[in-house]
Amino acid sequence: MDHPIVDNLVAISGLAPDRSRFLLSMLSAFPLAFLFSTLLHPKRAGPTIRHGFQLAVGMAFCYFCFKLQLLLLLLDTGMCYILLLVCPASIVHIAVFVWAIGFMSVSHIYRMYTDYNGYTLDFTGPTMIITMKVTSLACSVYDGMYRKEEDLNADQKTLALRKLPSILEFFSYCFCFTSILSGPAFNISDYNKFIDGSDKDKDKPEPSGVLPSLIKFLTAFFFISVTFVLPSSYEPFFGELLQSGLVKITGMIASISISSVGHPSFLQMSNGGIRTLFSTSLVTSISCPL
């Protein structure tokens, strides 16, 4: 027996429990993002509170979806932060990359060994997101604390970190609830600007993210429905179509083409069930006031 809500969703939809937990987490991110963008707007809440909210909700999502595998994600990120603290700036990007890619690789190899050709949603998904985040962060530290200013290009100057992030900033960045489950990854400089509100143009009104989010959500819902209805109703043609990945690609293109706020959204589908990956643009695009 799982949580009653999960059990009901499994009974109604036929989704496996792991996918049901994942879907519930992604759907709950919408109202939470709306609350974050309104009640915890930078004008009403400081960076510490906003970082804390992102971290708490992100870790709650991970525990709900992956249970004690959350500890493995904490091991991964914790070791990366220790490396940031103890390694010289000249090699920090190499050290963090070796650890992160090594941890991710071992995790995937173990998954293949224990669940070969399976499709269980586990901590290896967030591990890939974390790997992208911590390696980009380490490179920003290397650029900002070791390399000379004149050796950096324009993008590197913008993203370079002149000091290490605090432990709260680091873990909030890694476990940001709008990206920890399905991405996308982004640079910590952009994330900190989003948290403290410095990314906003004070001379212009903030755009609403409600309509772009709704359009993306409905697009994702449409293609999710396609994967449920067509394979069972029109086999073998649509089963082969889905197996070929055409609908998956079409869904990604449609979602990306309508993205007007935040990062492009995407969803991933599979034959014989479904894995929904609403990109955080479905969530972060609503992180603007009405």
List strands and helices in order, with pairings.
Elements: H1 4-13, H2 17-38, H3 47-66, H4 70-86, H5 92-114, H6 124-145, H7 154-159, H8 167-174, H9 188-196, H10 210-233, H11 237-244, H12 246-257, H13 281-284
Helix pairs in contact: 1-2, 2-3, 3-8, 4-5, 4-6, 5-6, 10-11, 10-12
Short structural description:
Helices cover 64% and strands 0% of the residues.
What would you say this structure looks like, in words?
By secondary structure, the chain is an all-alpha fold. It is 64% helix and 0% strand. It is built from 13 helices and no strands. Helix 2 packs antiparallel against helix 3 (47-66), helix 4 runs antiparallel to helix 5 and helix 10 packs across helix 11. The longest helix is centred in the C-terminal third of the chain and has 24 residues, at 210-233. The radius of gyration is 20 Å and the shape is globular. It starts with a helix and ends in a 6-residue tail after the last helix. The model is unreliable at 243-290 (pLDDT under 50).
What percent strand? under 5%
Work out the helicity level: 55-70%
Our measurement of the CA-to-CA distance between the termini, rounded to an integer number of angstroms, reads 40 Å
Q: Give the overall pLDDT as a whole number.
A: 80
Largest sheet: none
Q: Give the low-confidence spans.
A: 243-290
List the secondary-structure elements in sequence, H or E: HHHHHHHHHHHHH
- Give a count of the beta strands, DSSP E runs of length 2 or more: 0
Please identify the structural class as seen in this structure.
mainly alpha
Q: Based on CA inertia axes, which overall geometry fits?
A: globular
What does the radius of gyration come to?
A: 20 Å
